[in-house]
Design goal:
The protein has 235 residues and is an all-alpha fold. 83% of the residues lie in helices and 0% in strands. It has one domain (12-229). The longest helix has 47 residues, at 48-94. The termini are far apart.
Length: 235
Amino acid sequence: MTTPEYEPHRVSHLARLNWLRAGVLGANDGIVSIAALVVGVAAATTDINAILIAGVAGLAAGAISMGLGEYVSVSSQRDSELALIAKEKQELIDQPEVELLELQTIYEHKGLSAKTAKQVAKELTEHDAVRAHLEAELNILEAHIVNPWHAAFSSTGSFLAGALLPFLTVLFAAPEFRIVATIIASIIALGATGAAGAYLGGSSMGKSIVRVMVGGAAALAITFAIGSLFNTSVG
């Protein structure tokens, strides 16, 4: 019987998948936000300068908002995790026997016998007490504490990557096809992000694609209708 290989980087791989999913969501936000914005403005006016100004402003505001929001959110998470780690380390210094019993109890609740749980807790504590308690009690790995700057740049970059497609389409498409081309390009791109998100998450690809495409189409229809109410290019 072949012994299963130990996979020390499994958690790291899961973390990368989470970042990839976050990147897909950021790109999806960029597509919807900027496509809806420029389609709405293009429906109101054919003035390319007005569309350009609105698009650039939307790109800047959206990217800053995404990056700052992610930085603040992940910073709060990081602070909480670091506080929990510091607390656990101090408890191991102040009351090691209590912590050992606590670890044993955790493994008993997972189904091990009292004798086996005690032995497991003892061996894990001797090997790396801090890691043993962080994993068992808090499901935290000290080496994989989230980085707020990484999250902020990732979120900003993915938003811009998604937003550039509708922005460039509305700028370079022929005036008479500007809105239609932007809508088509955006819907196709949303289908791609929906498929990517479903693949990474292991969910139904068809449902995910339909969901994001319908949602994006609805957003574009609403902003197009609003822009049409203020159309200044006729007459």
